[in-house]
């Protein structure tokens, strides 16, 4: 027994510092995305997060092509620019033409993503920039700069959540009221989108574009099933991010699979557990409550 | 038959090869892409109208694990098993989404995103497992992510042709029910149409089209072939029949041109090129659509502004003494340069004449009707 858990849980940490790096960057990514995801979930922007994760790809490609360096800074700037451009295009199309919001999101993000893929295949011939890497990440090969950047982003997100808690809360739950009391709702929205872009780009090195979305949505959805209040929701989401990061890396080590995908599966697995077993809103709880209600009703009408 | 490497031939030669279907595989590639565009355009129309674009997104991303699992079972890239796997996965995703929305308080858009990334994440995990462990025969699985229209085989073209016939037939025969379902579902229910049957029929057809299009457009961008040609058509007409026809046309054009570009430039997958062509058409329609294009609207606004200012000039001139350029500019509240340009345009059209002393005279030939109109409009 002793050997079994030691081999599986402790040994990976001993064989070199890659485990430490992988787990730490995963934790930073997961926690940052979990906190941001809570706000996105409330504002019903989950699918927009999916779109944005695709949109930053051409931003990264352009940033790389313009500066020729794989540093994070030009890619970050390119990604933010792409994110803002896309948000503007989507708003423009939705406001000025008949096309509705969901279709305009789809049109813009697929067009930009296609552009990004084409640019990457142009670039990939001159220099080794792995398209697979951008899409799926490479947790185990993260350079130091990206690690510290992600740590900084995570801390920034946590600080921002604490500092601007009230503003975010009011503008998420009741935008009309927020505007009425003078909060700059549009600015908050675009700031949120910018932070989202930054987080998405910084997370690329670890989990890639496409799987950032799961780390944004799943913790928030799970926390929503477990609690009705905002602060517990934020804390639970962050906790789930932490657990899915650590456990996801373990799963990847045990079964030799893609670490990012494993993290996503663990996170979604936790969601499914909450879906069924949540004490207040889970399916089992609803079933039992309905059965209890029925029993009471029968007793009341017969007794 | 030895083929010169595509990268070794000049572009013009490649272009000619594609346009004349010089090689068999080029013919299948072109036919397949056109058929994909047609089917996706037709069914995407209903997705766009019913605001279900992102459900199409989820259904297409969710097919990845189905494809990979089917490959793991069959150990070869045979078409039929992979497509069946994709179909099953798509259906499972739709079922999971419905289950979550009906049985929990998770928001629908979050549920959609969850199902999408869970399935797609599973697909990626399985894909990387396959690529690391299994041997041979799996090099082309990446084609399913971004499409590879050049590799379309005659069997797939036949499948697509059958599917296209089914789509055209369904849309023609059930035009009324689909029309009502898209625009006013509750009215349709109240007069007895079976809206849930129509809905499920559309969903089944859509998933079939998605699955059939994966080979040429790829999982990630199939949704674009569904949405973008349909949105382009949506910008150009208000009538469903016209929208269906236009959407099919744009889809076919995007498919063909996208496959052509992918053939000419060997490094580009066909999915992104088709999407870029379709998005280009969308851009053109958004700018130049006769009723809504923003370029058209901007031009119209400028012209109206110009007409208003000309009418203002005609109305103000009689009230000014002396009727000079400076007085006019002052009365209109504009810089002198701007008013001078306006007067030059009017002078060219023979409406008025600026004398050497700077006095402006409205010519007798300017009809009193125009003057009355000017007075009325200011």
Order of helices and strands of chain B: HHHHHHHHHHHHHHHHHEEH
Largest sheet of chain A: none
Structural class of chain B: mainly alpha
Low-confidence stretches of chain B: 1-5
> How would you write the strand order of the largest sheet of chain B?
1-2
User: Helicity of chain B, in percent?
Assistant: over 70%
Number of H/I helices of chain A = 13
- What overall geometry of chain A do the principal axes of the alpha carbons give? globular
Average of the residue pLDDT scores of chain B: 84
Tell me the series of helices and strands of chain A, N- to C-terminal: HHHHHHHHHHHHH
Number of helices of chain B: 18
The largest β sheet of chain B comes out as: 2 strands, antiparallel
Share of β-strand residues of chain B: under 5%
Distance between the termini of chain B: 78 Å
What is the count of β-strands of chain B? 2
Overall mean pLDDT of chain A stands at 84
The chain pair with the largest interface is: A-B, 57 and 57 residues
- Provide the helix percentage of chain A: over 70%
Shape of chain B: elongated
Taking the alpha carbons of the first and last residues of chain A, their distance comes to 56 Å
Short summary:
Chain A is mainly α and 303 residues long.
Structural description of this entry:
- The complex is a heterodimer of chains A (303) and B (378).
- Chain A has 303 residues and is an all-alpha fold.
- In chain A, 85% of the residues lie in helices and 0% in strands.
- Chain A has 13 helices and no strands.
- In chain A, helix 4 packs antiparallel against helix 5 (101-126).
- The longest helix of chain A has 42 residues, at 185-226.
- The radius of gyration of chain A is 22 Å and the shape is globular.
- Chain A starts with a helix and ends with a helix.
- By secondary structure, chain B is an all-alpha fold.
- In chain B, helix 2 packs parallel to helix 8 (154-173) and helix 15 (294-316) packs across helix 18 (368-377).
- Chain B is elongated and about 95 Å long.
- Chain B starts with 10 loop residues before the first helix and ends with a helix.
- Chains A and B meet through helix 3, helix 5, helix 10 and helix 12 of A and helix 3, helix 6, helix 12 and helix 14 of B.
